Amino acid sequence: MGPGKTTTRTRRRAVPWVLLGLWVAVLAFVGPFAAKLADVQHDRAVDYLPASADSTQVAKIEDQLPGGETTELVLVYHRDGGLSAADRATAARQIAEITKENPLTGTPKGVPSRDGTTLMYPVASSAPGTDEKKRDAFVNDVRDVARGADGLSVDVGGQGALATDAAEVYNSLGGPLLYTTVAVVAVLLILIYRSPLLWLVPLAVAGVADYLSMGVAYGLHEAFGTSVSGQSSGVMTILVFGAGTDYALLLISRYREELRRVERPYDAMRQALRGCGPAVLASSGTVAAGLLCLLAADLNSSRGMGPTGMVGVLCALVAMLTLLPALLVLLGRRVFWPLVPAFGSRPKQRRNLFSAMGSSAGRRPYAVLAGGAVLLGALALGTLNLPGGLKQQDSFAHKPDSVAAIETLAKAYPGQGTQPLTVITPTGRADTALATVRDHQGVASAERGRSGQGWTEISVIARGAPQSAAETATIKSLRADLKGSGAYVGGASAQQIDLQDTNARDRLVVVPIVLVSVLLILIVLLRSLVAPLLLVAAVIAVWGAALGIGGLVFGPLLGFEGTDPGLGLLSFVFLVALGVDYGIFLMHRMREESLSGAEPAAAALTALRTTGGVIASAGLVLAATFAVLTNMGLVPLVELGFVIAVGVLLDTFLVRTYLVTSASVALGRRVWWPGRLSREPERESERRTPVAVG
Description:
It is built from 20 helices and 8 strands. By secondary structure, the protein is of the alpha+beta class. The strands form 2 sheets. Strands 2-3-1-4 form a 4-stranded antiparallel β-sheet. It has a 4-stranded antiparallel β-sheet with strand order 6-7-5-8, sandwiched between helices. Strand 6 (443-452) and strand 7 (455-462) form a beta hairpin. Helix 6 (200-224) runs antiparallel to helix 9 (300-331), helix 7 (230-259) runs antiparallel to helix 8 and helix 11 crosses helix 16. The longest helix is centred in the N-terminal third of the chain and has 35 residues, at 159-193. The radius of gyration is 29 Å and the shape is elongated.
């Protein structure tokens, strides 16, 4: 053996170790920043509200008033048979203790219900300010004091209590979400690979990618002020494990194939990366671009989820194209034990489910296409059964103390406001604004509050019950009456109105941007116009069908009282980006077969036969990771996880296998129009080097 070959072999052996060393250095550098991500995660209302809405301005200005943001609570004392004198004395004693131990804004006054069963005490404090930990401590201190006994129930509600209960759920997501995701992916990888060791490698790499994404997300927050919430960080973890495992499945499948043709693992990995690398890069780029389109949203929570989701996908991509290949090469063929792909061997020929599916689609493409379109259209009709907008108190899968308080107040004070609205007005116009508010027919009472920094706060009690049609009408008409005066109307109910209105606006803006961005990427990648339009139409149909199934499940089966306003937009972005991801794998292989001179129908069926198993495995993993969200304690996360999981399964086992394949067979060479493949595939194959996708 000559010195040149020896040097080459030594260099090749060193490359995986160098990559491994670089990753150790990167993790050592990122580690301190990853640990800080939880410190910058915020779930205050202003972190979710639309950037330009009245309620957002109110929340921001309240931070500037003396004492900062006010934490508002309502203590609800209730006895079914009517409150006794002893119950009222207990309430008074507990309120006095709370007042003594906490700096409150004003003196709490009890408001009895007409039927004598309930007594509510509004309590507010500006001491916690914008510090969520101090807010939670204040709420928990009040709950420790306010306790019932002998048939007297005491619940602590109000906006502050709702925020604390929501924060508790979000804070609990990190551990359970990660552990459940890891467990689900581990089980699926064991079933897919049937190896005691191989499944550990991509799972460990996904864990490293998740750790890296946390550090990068923290850096993004520090550099650009990107908001990080419990929802966005949870979805980022899901994307890292879901998308990352998908890329690993594709790479390992191609690597196993190359090990049968190439003697040395290093050379086999190089061939595998050359073969599937372009498709993985294109698919991850499409997902990242789709998520980045959320920056055009006005809703803070949606806009923040775009960059954090993109970070998760890109970190997964980098890890799976560098760290995973290095580990696989270092472990050698034995990592596949007991199904080791020996050099020169051939895989056992088994009946391929996707060959059978492709054959049925190839025999009657028009019938399959029409049947699938009718089925998806029928499922999409279920969107008509989606419940209305989700109220804040209905956002919890399991009813906390704050929701019990709201329900008790709604029964004891029918048709009466129990949750204050907040009007912020320039101090110079405060008297005029107060008079305007008090004269409004939908207002029961209005009191002037704090002043500072040129602003004055007015606390308003509406006549209508919280989030009722009457209260909504009052908020909208108050905003109309105060328009031009520089005043803003906010508060919990106003926030829900702004969330719904802004989500409607964001759908009109973001959806077209996502479609155009994804379509342009597909046109460049596939060098065709028809094929990209086919893929985009397919994922839109999947989105509609998945939402329709949600409409048949959320209310009738799960008992949800409403649909999260952001469900339509977020599920669209994820399903379009992730659905096109699988379409790229399939169509890229179809293009390779066409470049090699295969007829259109044969190219479509070969692409399905060779990539169908990998796409199916990837789809199962991705659907399972998003399904983990359905086990979380918040209805918006449950709904989002359900729709995306169902959509991915529809896309994997119906749209990719049957509809896209049958449409490609029916269109023939026209699927590549106006590219050269639509006219002269044989010459094209002579001029170009095929790019394989495993």
